[in-house]
Each structure stands twice: as structure tokens, then as C-alpha cells.
Amino acid sequence: MTLGQRLSGKVAIITGAASGIGAETAHRFAEHGARVVLCDVQDELGAAVAQDITDAGGVATYHRLDVTDEAQWIALVASAEARYGTINILCNIAGVSGRPPSMTVQASGVMTGVSLEDQTLENWNLIMGVNSTGVFLGTKSVIPAMRRAGGGSIVNISSICGIVGSFANAAYHASKGAVRIFTKSTAIQYAKEQIRANSVHPGFVDTPMARPGLLGNESGKARMDATPMGRFGKPSDIAMGCLYLASDEAAWVTGSELVIDGGMTAN
């Protein structure tokens, strides 16, 4: 791996870094010179990603983090700042679909996920906790460190589901819509301190979490048909957008929505 200069000297915390978009983002950031702090609850996978980055010449450490636990966030940020001296980037990528493990395709054959009437309060709270509260806690926890660093970049993964609705999984849509507007509020509050916040809105991306709704069923066919570019996204497609927003190339970009969806929401 040849280290580039787009994130040279920067320290990045990345949640959901054990697989999918989070793991790919960690790799890309390390390739471009960032020291990366990988966080997840999938310890074996997360440690393996960190080891791969280290073996390739990058700098990475793995930490177990429940993004819904404020005390864990406080400890993580303190540890990262003590170890590396600064925190410049936060990527809130950890997320859950809330789809029951046994469910693959909705009865309609169009979308995966439960209907609003079948949504339990327990499942709603789980989805909102990881996808929304986790973003709030991460952002709240890094602001003082970024202030000490003279600024920073916060990149929050939302979704096209934070922009448009669908036939099911209202809790997921609500959680991602919350991320979208929370990001704008963060951007406005901290712009004068040079702390930027932007949201990324992936379309249908082939990740371990999304794969049951994409491959080998009618749901996947409907989603492919709705994507003008004729393929599902790859984690690298999203990671490169995160790289741009994290870098100084986006120094005047805050409060924005970066949609990466193969043209789906342009329909």
C-alpha cells in the first residue's frame, strides 16, 4: 500500500468498521495517510481489518464500541486523543437494518422489512438507538477534541431511505431521516469552529447487512430495476465519497447531502 496525501497526518474514528462500508472506508483512509481507530462490536472481524491495514503499512487500532453507550464513547475518544494527540475525523457508519433474521422478502415481493403495523417498539428502539442515537453520541463526544484540534470533519452515513420512503421498514427510514437533519443542525452550530458535518446517502449497496434484500429474490430485482446505472453499489463507491468529505478538498462543504445511488433518486 502506498500512502497518499489526502488525509496525511489526520486521525479518524470509524464506527461499523468491521465489515462493509466501514471496513472499506478504513482501508481507504489508511491508504491516504490517516491513522484510523476502528470501532465495532464484531471483535474478530474488526481486529482482522485493523491487522490487514497494519500489515499493508498503515496505522490502525481496533476498539470494541457499543455506539449507544455514552460512557464507551467518552472513553474511546479520550483513549484515541491520548494515543494520537488529536482527532480530526469521525465517520459514523455503524448501523442496523432492523430486519428480522428470518425475513428475506416482503410478502408483496417488492421490499424487505416489516410493515409499520408489525413494527414492535423494541425493534423500533433498537434501530433508532444504533442508527440515530449512536450518531448523536459520537458527534457529541468528539466535538471537544475537534475544537482542540482547530476543526474537523464529521461524516454521517444516512441513506436514500433518509430522503425517500418505501413500502416497509418505517423505523429504518425514520432513523436515517433523523441522521440527515441532525447533520445539518450540527453543521450550522459548529461552522464557526471549522467543524464540518455532512451526510452520505448510499443507494442499494452490496454489503453483508443489505445482501439478503438484494440477491436472488424479487426484492433485489425491483431494486436493480430502480437503479439507472444497472448495478448495485460497492462499499468502495461509498468509501470514496467519505474520503472526499473527510479531506481538506471539502474544506468549504458542510451541511450537505452526498447521494451515491447509481441515479436511483434522480428518477
Can you give a write-up of this model?
- The protein is α/β, with parallel strands linked by helices and 267 residues long.
- The chain has helices spanning 20-31, 43-55, 70-84, 121-149, 170-190, 218-225, 235-246; strands at residues 11-15, 35-40, 59-64, 89-92, 152-157, 195-202, 257-260.
- A 7-stranded parallel beta sheet has the order 3-2-1-4-5-6-7, sandwiched between helices.
- α1 packs parallel to α2, α1 crosses α7 (235-246) and α3 (70-84) runs parallel beside α4 (121-149).
Shape: globular
> What is the total tally of β strands?
7
Provide the low-confidence segments as ranges.
104-111
Fraction of helical residues: 40-55%
Class from secondary-structure proportions: alpha/beta
Average pLDDT level? 90
Q: Beta fraction of the residues?
A: 5-15%
Cα separation of the termini: 39 Å
- How would you spell out the order of helices and strands? EHEHEHEHEHEHHE
What Rg do the Cα atoms give?
18 Å
Integer tally of domains: 1
CATH homologous group name: NAD(P)-binding Rossmann-like Domain
